[in-house]
Amino acid sequence: MKLVSFQAADGPAVGLLTKEGVIDLSRAAPHLPRTMKGLLQEYGTDLVSAVRTKRDVTPVPLGEIDLLPVVPNPNKIICIGRNYAAHAREGGAEPLEYPDIFMRAATSLTAHNKPIIRPTCSETLDYEAELVFVVGLKTRHATEENALDCIAGYSMFNEGSIRNYQRKATQWTPGKNFDRTGAFGPALVTPDGLPEAMHGVRIQTRLNGETMQDANTDDLIFPVRRLVAILSEIMTLEPGDVVVTGTPEGVGHARRPPVWMKAGDRVEVEIDGLGTLVNGIEDES
User: Fold this and answer.
1) Cα 63 to Cα 14: distance, rounded to the nearest angstrom
2) pLDDT at residue 282, rounded to an integer
3) Which of the ends of the chain has fewer CB neighbours closer than 10 A, N or C?
4) Residue 81 pLDDT
5) CA 233, 236, 239: angle at the middle one, nearest 5?
């Protein structure tokens, strides 16, 4: 099952994405919360049974929907750096014994089919295809054995990174939090029908039709189960929290010469089973 967040005429809403288009759950199942975080807070990981449409509502084509980031207002956006072995090596580092962990703000998010913004202060806007998991149950001190119990679903992220600002300090926060640089979407995909923990799936980035990243999640140094255990040892994971699991090799800054995204570009992130996240690039006005 695939769920999207979007802006309806009367406010934020959640939709059920089908082959025919998006069914507005605020009309088809008006008893449900109208936001993704509200839905997760009330129903946790039991989204499939919760989302049972009651009214006959005509689907709207996805291209006509004003999409929002999958979870527009998460309490936490937790990001993992250098989590693919080949990507760590292309950056000049050996695989880590403990993950690089940093945070993003909600103001850095943008949605599927919405622009990623290149800021006026830098030309070093890079792409990063990433697998996301979204927390559905409050979790603390999970084990790898029960880690998947807290995951409501998976999605995709293009973590636009301003590389020269990423390297202005020992912490990466400046380069990872420019407004509307982190594309998140298009949908939250529930785990039923997906490979367990999204292990062994293909992940790609295409820039203007050219494949730039093409890897597999079996190269993750800290897979999904391990990340849940590590993160929940540090902090309480809450419904709606977003974990962005890292990018594979092939990023623009590691190329010679470097490849930076610029206004007019079109970038696609694709992960098997989750679909394709598409964004154009625009300069900050």
Assistant:
1) 15
2) 98
3) C
4) 94
5) 135
Q: How far apart are alpha carbons 8 and 6 in whole angstroms?
A: 6
Identify the CA nearest to 75 among candidates 239, 210, 229, 202.
Answer: 239
> Rg of the chain's alpha carbons, rounded to an integer?
18
Which residue(s) pair with 203 in the sheet?
215, 271
Maximum distance among all alpha carbons in the chain?
56
Neighbours of 161 (CB within 10 A): 25
CA distance 124 to 129: 16
**Each residue's pLDDT tens digit, 14-50:** 999 999 999 999 999 999 999 999 999 999 999 999 9
Contact 81, 99 (CB under 8 A): yes
Residue 174 carries which side chain, given as an amino acid letter?
A: P
Q: Which two tokens stand for residue 222?
A: 């800290």
Give the integer Cα–Cα distance in Å for 215 and 206: 12
Enumerate the domain spans of the chain. Answer: 2-64, 77-283
Query: Is-contact 271 220, C-beta < 8 A?
Result: no
Q: What is the pLDDT of residue 137?
A: 98
Average pLDDT value for residue range 8-18: 97
Tokens standing for residue 5: 């967040």
Q: What is the pLDDT of residues 80-130, one digit of tens each?
A: 999 998 887 877 777 789 999 999 999 999 999 999 999 999 999 999 999
Regarding the domain delimited by 77-283, which CATH topology (the fold level of the hierarchy) does it fall under?
Fumarylacetoacetate hydrolase; domain 2 (3.90.850)
The arithmetic mean of pLDDT across residues 251-278, rounded, is 98
* CA atoms lying within 13 Å on the CB side of residue 40: 31
What is the number of other CB atoms lying within 10 angstroms of the CB of residue 102? 18
